[in-house]
């Protein structure tokens, strides 16, 4: 599913109208009726409903929604909250259809006249402003939104809540606080931003009949379980361990042996054929007890941490990963640089490896093979020098700029994980839950990603699939065996078998 900016959505509407001959009024009718169909299961026959209608396409959708619900027997008051001269074009045509259908349209003039209707409503449908909003709301919309947010009614929004920016990088706004949003045709970028997503509430997307084959490419997609099933590598009957990747993982320390152990076990659970763990010699016995299927390469250590004086031979491996439990000490940089220069396949750098990487970012540009970085926002802030707050407000832009500048694949972890390729293509993973907010969850993700990388020719697909597999495992586990409170990273590792079994099962007709 595509993810769009406001400009991209405008372009899609224009393409539909100009290339196929679809009339704008027809698109608006389709959008409004599809939205009404989506909202209907959330309202009751006895509910008093108020539809707040503004200008532009969003207001036009509001006229269609109000008419559709009235035709179906619901108790609806339609309120036009902008002056008549603000409504033109297709929206004006649908206002005329609404009134010619015999329904009363109330028009806002004073708050004192409007508030009794608002406070009597059990359901508020917001169709005031759509994707074109800029800056803070002005009167009277600012006051209407404030009163609506204070009222204990079910708040439903069309496309995006009034006042909310469609794109990223905007932090100063007022917005309708929806319990549920019906998104028209494609989710907007702001759905996936930490500071704007709460205003949407729950949401779903309705299709309105745009010509899919004619639409311009956006290179920004929501990656789903369906996509995973279509792109995940399949095992053939006569395959052997050498055909599913031979990798090496470097990391771990006396005080953090679990990080490399869980990452390695997750990589093996994800299908890696052969795996070597390169770690401090002193922790090999403890790691072996957890990961019996791996082989080991003992590295020199100082005070329980790998020194970098001895490095694993990389030429015999298809790919490498480094960072999990490595420790943030100066000598770790030598091992990271060795990996960057000598790894003959894809290289994944995570956790403490990212801190060591900070001083050698330009070395990334010298690699012709795929390099994958998997930071959370704090680690990305350290790498870029950009404040965390700015990263959270503009994650798509900053991820794309960094991936392009250094030629890397970037997995920016969070409630919505953004996977970015060097050419700017981006995928978003929505799976997972708050149970993942535990130490070790990121190590397990790195293991899954590494396993997928070793088995796929398409790195972006491998990373996108790995993120969905990891998050879906957490979702399965809290549905069946665990809660968000007690879920552990080690539970994720053992839960992977259920996810792979589910994702590889044939779809039911």
Structure description:
The chain is elongated and about 80 Å long. It has 2 domains: 6-218, Rossmann fold, CATH 3.40.50; 225-503, UDP-N-acetylmuramoyl-L-alanine:D-glutamate ligase (3-Layer(aba) Sandwich). It has a 10-stranded mixed beta sheet, sandwiched between helices. A 7-stranded parallel beta sheet has the order 3-2-1-4-5-6-7, sandwiched between helices. The chain has 509 residues and is α/β, with parallel strands linked by helices. A hairpin with a 2-residue loop joins strand 12 (301-302) and strand 13 (305-306). The chain contains 18 helices and 19 strands. The model has no long low-confidence stretch (mean pLDDT 93). It has helices spanning 6-20, 24-39, 56-71, 89-100, 111-120, 141-150, 197-200, 225-231, 257-269, 284-288, 332-342, 352-357, 377-384, 388-393, 395-406, 441-454, 459-480, 489-504, and strands spanning 48-53, 75-80, 105-107, 123-127, 154-158, 180-184, 202-206, 220-223, 246-250, 274-280, 295-299, 301-302, 305-306, 319-322, 347-349, 371-373, 409-412, 417-420, 426-429.
List the helices and strands and how they pair.
Layout: H1 6-20, H2 24-39, E1 48-53, H3 56-71, E2 75-80, H4 89-100, E3 105-107, H5 111-120, E4 123-127, H6 141-150, E5 154-158, E6 180-184, H7 197-200, E7 202-206, E8 220-223, H8 225-231, E9 246-250, H9 257-269, E10 274-280, H10 284-288, E11 295-299, E12 301-302, E13 305-306, E14 319-322, H11 332-342, E15 347-349, H12 352-357, E16 371-373, H13 377-384, H14 388-393, H15 395-406, E17 409-412, E18 417-420, E19 426-429, H16 441-454, H17 459-480, H18 489-504
Parallel strand pairs: 1-2, 1-4, 2-3, 4-5, 5-6, 6-7, 8-19, 9-10, 9-14, 10-11, 14-15, 15-16, 16-17
Antiparallel strand pairs: 12-13, 17-18, 18-19
Helix pairs in contact: 2-3, 2-4, 3-4, 5-6, 8-17, 9-16, 9-18, 16-17, 16-18, 17-18
């Amino acid at each position: 599913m595509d993810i769009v900016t406001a400009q991209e959505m405008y372009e899609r509407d224009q393409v539909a109208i100009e290339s196929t001959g679809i009339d704008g009024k027809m698109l608006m009718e389709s959008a409004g009726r599809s939205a009404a169909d989506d909202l209907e299961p959330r309202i009751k026959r006895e509910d008093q409903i108020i539809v707040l209608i503004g200008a532009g396409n969003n207001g036009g959708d509001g006229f269609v929604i109000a008419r559709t619900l009235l035709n179906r027997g619901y108790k609806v008051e339609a309120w036009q909250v902008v002056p008549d001269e603000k409504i033109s074009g297709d929206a004006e045509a649908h206002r005329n259809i609404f009134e010619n259908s015999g329904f009363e349209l109330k028009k806002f003039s004073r708050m004192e006249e409007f508030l009794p209707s608002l406070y009597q409503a059990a359901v508020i449908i917001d169709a005031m402003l759509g994707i074109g909003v800029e800056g803070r709301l002005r009167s009277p919309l600012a006051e209407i939104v404030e009163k609506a947010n204070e009222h204990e009614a079910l708040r439903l929004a069309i496309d995006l809540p009034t006042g909310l920016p469609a794109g990223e990088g905007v932090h100063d706004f007022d917005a309708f606080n929806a319990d549920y949003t019906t998104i028209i045709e494609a989710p907007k970028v702001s759905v996936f931003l930490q500071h704007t997503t709460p205003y949407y509430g729950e949401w779903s997307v309705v299709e309105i009949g745009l010509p899919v084959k004619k639409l311009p490419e956006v290179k920004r997609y929501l990656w789903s379980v369906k996509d995973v099933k279509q792109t995940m590598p399949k095992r053939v009957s006569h395959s052997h361990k050498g055909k599913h990747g031979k990798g090496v993982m470097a990391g771990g320390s006396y005080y953090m042996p679990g990080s490399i152990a869980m990452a390695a076990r997750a990589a093996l659970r994800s299908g890696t054929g052969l795996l070597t763990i390169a770690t401090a010699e002193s922790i090999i016995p403890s790691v072996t007890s957890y990961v019996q299927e791996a082989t080991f390469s003992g590295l020199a250590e100082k005070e329980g941490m790998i020194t970098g004086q001895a490095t694993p031979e990389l030429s015999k491996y298809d790919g490498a990963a480094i960072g999990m439990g490595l420790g943030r000490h100066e000598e770790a940089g030598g091992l990271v640089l060795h990996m960057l220069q000598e790894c003959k396949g894809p290289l994944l750098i995570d956790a403490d490896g990212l801190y060591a990487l900070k001083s050698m970012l330009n070395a990334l540009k010298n690699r012709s093979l795929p390099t994958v970085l998997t930071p959370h926002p704090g680690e990305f802030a350290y790498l870029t020098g950009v404040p965390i707050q700015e990263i959270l407000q503009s994650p798509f832009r900053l991820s794309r700029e960094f991936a392009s500048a250094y030629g890397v694949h970037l997995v920016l972890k969070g409630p919505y994980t953004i996977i970015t390729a060097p050419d700017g293509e981006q995928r978003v993973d929505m799976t997972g839950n708050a149970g993942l907010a535990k130490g070790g969850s990121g190590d397990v993700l790195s293991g899954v990603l590494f396993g997928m990388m070793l088995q796929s020719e398409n790195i972006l697909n491998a990373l996108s699939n790995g993120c969905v597999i990891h998050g879906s495992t957490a979702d399965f586990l809290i549905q069946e065996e665990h809660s968000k409170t007690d879920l552990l990273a080690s539970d994720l590792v053992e839960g992977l078998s259920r996810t792979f079994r589910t994702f590889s099962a044939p779809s039911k007709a």
